[in-house]
């Protein structure tokens, strides 16, 4: 049996020998061969498009990022309340200027200032936030909503959290 017959037998699953070579069904061989070629071609095309899609996802347009999106004060003793002023850095990781159109805060939090001029690519901006921390046990849950022309997300939310707790240590009662 020469190589051609073994090749045909491998792809068709038919028992091929020289005695019956003239009765070999070439139509079945071509269908099976085309199926294998098409399957391999399909795998190559899917791989190509997947890789090209992943590589083409550059930061087209403005791309907003922050130094932190959550500021956690943790436990705050009521006798050692920190200053309620925070400054968040904004990064433009895209290839076009980033414009912040609005910065709003809720729950007694105030946005003092933010970068109003366009933030150029690979440049930074800021948002300054101020709020009052009451020196008593309570939960702190504040948000700052930022609207921009960013391609990755046009609305971003910065969160501030913590918990005011009773001071730890000896509690002594004073006599009157």
Q: What secondary-structure arrangement, pairings included, does this model have?
A:
Elements: H1 3-12, H2 26-56, E1 64-66, E2 70-77, E3 85-92, E4 100-105, E5 110-114, E6 124-130, E7 138-148, E8 155-165
Parallel strand pairs: 2-8
Antiparallel strand pairs: 1-3, 3-6, 4-7, 5-6, 7-8
How would you describe the overall organization of this protein?
The protein is of the alpha+beta class. The chain folds into 2 domains: 3-56; 64-165, Immunoglobulin-like (Sandwich). 23% of the residues lie in helices and 34% in strands. The protein is built from 2 helices and 8 strands; from the N terminus they run H-H-E-E-E-E-E-E-E-E. Strands 1-3-6-5 form a 4-stranded antiparallel sheet, with no helix packed on it. Strands 2-8-7-4 form a 4-stranded mixed sheet, with no helix packed on it. The protein is elongated and about 85 Å long.
């Amino acid at each position: 049996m020469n190589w051609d017959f073994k090749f045909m037998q491998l792809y068709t699953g038919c028992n091929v020998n020289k005695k019956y070579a003239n009765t070999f069904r070439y139509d079945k061989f071509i269908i099976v061969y085309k199926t294998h070629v098409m399957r391999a071609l399909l795998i190559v095309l899917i791989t190509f498009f997947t890789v090209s899609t992943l590589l083409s996802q550059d930061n087209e347009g403005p791309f907003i990022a922050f130094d932190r999106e959550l500021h956690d004060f943790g436990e705050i003793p009521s006798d050692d309340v920190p200053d309620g002023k925070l400054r968040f850095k904004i990064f433009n990781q895209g290839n076009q200027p980033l414009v912040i159109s609005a910065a709003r805060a809720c729950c007694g939090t105030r946005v003092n200032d933010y970068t109003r001029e366009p933030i150029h690519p690979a440049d930074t901006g800021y948002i300054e936030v101020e709020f009052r921390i009451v020196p008593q046990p309570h939960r702190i849950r504040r948000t700052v909503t930022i609207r921009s022309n960013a391609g990755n997300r046009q609305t971003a939310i910065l969160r501030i959290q913590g918990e005011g707790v009773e001071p730890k240590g000896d509690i002594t009662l004073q006599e009157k």
